[in-house]
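pipeline: protein-struct stage 2 | run 1193 | DUF4260 domain-containing protein
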Amino acid sequence: MIWLRLEGLFVLAISTLSYWQSGGNWIWFAALFLVPDLSLLGYLMGPRTGAVFYNLAHSYVGPICALIGLWLSGQTALLPLVLIWFAHIGFDRALGYGLKYMTGFRHTHLGEIGREHARQP
């Protein structure tokens, strides 16, 4: 699991550095950084729907597809938004928040999350 968390930290660092290199506005970065977490509202409709919404917003597939679409269309003005999305996913993964299983929010591909699980070696 440590490798997956380090991978998340690496994605966070590279996407944040790329955002800086692109000349992105840091106010926008701060304002939009947590937008993918709005997907948590899916849990209001149950754990299965919540997991689907969360995973759609927190999988690398979404920003990769957006990046390819921007590259193919030549619309580089939206690149900073994709970099913020990558940074958010990397941040979550570095903290141990993985993609969710349909059994509940605490069950992720990086293991169970929660206070009682944080104390275990």
